Amino acid sequence: MAITDPIADMLSRIKNAVSINAETVELPSSKLKVKILEVFKKEGYIDNFEEFSKGNKKFLKIVFKIRSKNKNVIKNLKRVSSPGRHIYVGYENLPKVQSGFGTAIVSTSKGIMTDKEARQNKIGGEVLLYIW
User: Model pTM?
Assistant: First the structure.
């Protein structure tokens, strides 16, 4: 079965794993997902991730960062752009997620980066998702 929006599928899998306080989650791999997960790791939302193969297919295993009392660092995720509706913004209009406590992931001409990095580099782009 083909997935029409692989980013939304990734976010749904992460949300479901967070809701049951799972320590890890596995999902199909892609270059875009790896770049997004690199930003998640750099921003401190996940502990680690690794790519592995099952047969001829590649998968990603995400290890969540757990706070005290089995609470996950990730509270929520929201897909902004979709295959049918792309949301582009200039660097002046990049959103501040949860009054600056969250992060917007932006696809720019310089690669995938956070809203803060895009503002510093004065680059706009497509807002892919929010995480907080």
Answer: 0.92
The total domain count for the chain is 1
pLDDT exceeds 80 at position 69: no
- 83 within domain boundaries: yes
Is residue 1 in a domain?
no
Instruction: Supply the range of the domain harboring residue 39.
Output: 6-66+74-131
Q: Which amino acid is at 90?
A: G
Give the type of residue at 109. S
Checking DSSP bridges between strand 46-54 and strand 24-28, what pairing results, if any? unpaired
| Model confidence at 1: pLDDT above 80 | no
pLDDT at 43: 95
Q: Reduced to 3 states, what is the DSSP secondary structure of residue 7?
A: helix
Backbone angles phi, psi at 99, to 5 degrees: 55, 35
